[in-house]
Amino acid sequence: MNKIQIIKRLYKSYTKRYIKNIILAFIFSLFLAGSTSSVAYLLDPAIEKLFIDQNQSLIILIPILIILAFAIKGLSLYIARVLMIGVSEEVKKDIQKDIFSSLLKSDTEIIDEKHSGKFIANLTNDVNMITNLLSTVVLNLFKDSLTLIGLLSVMFYQNWKLSLIAIIMIPLASIAAKTLGKRISKVSTQQMNRAGELTSYLMEMFKNHKLIKIFQQENYEKERAFKFIENLKESTKKIAIVFVRASPIMEFLTGIMIAFLIYFAAIFVSRGELEVNNFFSFLAAMMLAYQPVRSLATLNISIQQGIAGAIRVIPIIDNNPNVRDINNAKTLKLNSGTIEFENVNFEYPNSKNRILNNINLTFTGTKMTALVGHSGAGKSTILNLIPRFFDVKDGDIKIDQQSIFNCTLNSLRKNISLVSQDTTLFDDTIRNNIIYANLNASEDEIEEAAKLSFADEFISKLPNKYETLIGENGIRLSGGEKQRLSIARAILKKSPVILLDEATSSLDAETEDKIQKAINFLTKGRTTIVIAHRLSTILNSERIYVIDKGKVNSHGTHKELLESSNVYKNFYQKQIDKS
């Protein structure tokens, strides 16, 4: 998209709905322009009548009119600014909502490939640049252009020859501003990228602060942080310098203009072509015009910044996820909950390595099926394909003979719960973390889910019970406590399909026993697929699939695989040795 298309897009999508307030701001800008021009014009009769003719009849009226003009100017500017601030904040809210909505429905690959800190920079810094385009640029365009037109009218009324000399500065200022605008666009993009890098780094540092301490890398991280801060400072400094650079240019041009005007004004006065009162009125109008000319000349810089922000934000808003409902998608209707993989091939986006090769699997409804195999064999990928976190390259996945790609994502995911070893919790209360699975659940249902997952054992010992804040990703809880909350959440959802990704790994024997009991309740009578590393899980499974290098190596019961599969036999022997 070019700059004109971006501005049209911003107007059509965000600004158009607030056009009434923008028109009102324009009207008050007219009052502002008229009152400013009248101040310059009033100097003509003030000097002529009060000082040259010494007419005392106007000694009160003219000062009152000047006071009134300044009052109208101040009030009009205030109202126009309030209106445009309101518009810009509404637009800011709308853009941020659209970015957030787009990110929520984005493909997993989009979120994974970009650090979350950069998305935060898009939501804050870039959006601020865009809204500045409205709150500052649009208002300044209105008030300064109208004021300039009014003041030029006064100047031409007083002396058209001097006015022609004065307006020579305007195109010169525009040329200078255009050059500065190109520079500001480049450094703005650089500055936003570096702001995103700093935000990303800070998030990583806070997340890994224990790791930094245990390996005593404070000095190393300090140097890294200082480098990010230094880079951001340099980019911000460049922007500030480009902005400031406009001042000496405008001062120099103004100085040249005033020198020429005084020179020619003296000639015109000596020839009798210009009265002193007309010259003072003209000079006042010209000096008042300095501010709007300077503002309009530097307007291009702010426009370039806003466009630079929009270039980064609009692609996020316009992103269409690849994983989405097809036209006329049907609601998934579960019976037994049998899941089948038919000739499934898969490779992650932007990767040439195929993760799954011609996979054929059957997960019997209401039963538990285990996936075993070495790390990186493709087990977690199989789980991720069922709720369509990613879509397959080839093949089909069916639930009760219904292709999941022909069903709505909502009806598919509504029937699936996922419990992973990487437990994800919100920086919120225990209650809100459990109820996240079903926001309409009653207090009794929440407490029942906590009891069935054995989470109530530690919740009851906390001072604030279910209202206890657990910190970022449950930092105030142990690994076993977090896992039990995750299971309570899954129990509350009551999904017919359960996906367990090493849910009992890295736990002590007592905690594992409790979590295993909770899992037994969670999975009873439900289609369950479990990535197994524990003997108890393997032995409880009706069927076991051995996954090796993205392929199904073998499958069967525990006894069958001990006899038929060397890969499984070695895997099982390692589990015995560990136990």
Please give a quick description of this structure.
By secondary structure, this protein is an alpha/beta fold.
Would you kindly provide a written description of the structure presented here, covering whatever features stand out?
The chain has three domains: 3-318, ABC transporter transmembrane region fold (Up-down Bundle), CATH 1.20.1560.10; 324-415 and 496-579, P-loop containing nucleotide triphosphate hydrolases (Rossmann fold, 3-Layer(aba) Sandwich), CATH 3.40.50.300; 429-494. Helix content is 65%, strand content 10%. It is elongated and about 120 Å long. It has helices spanning 3-15, 19-52, 61-105, 108-113, 116-158, 160-166, 169-207, 209-214, 218-271, 276-318, 379-385, 409-414, 430-435, 443-452, 456-459, 479-493, 509-523, 535-540, 558-564, 566-578; strands at residues 339-346, 356-363, 368-372, 394-399, 402-403, 416-420, 497-501, 527-531, 543-548, 551-556. Strands 6-7-8-3-9-10 form a six-stranded mixed beta sheet, with helices on both faces. Strands 2-1-4-5 form a four-stranded antiparallel beta sheet, with helices on one face. Strand 4 and strand 5 form a beta hairpin. The two termini are 61 Å apart.
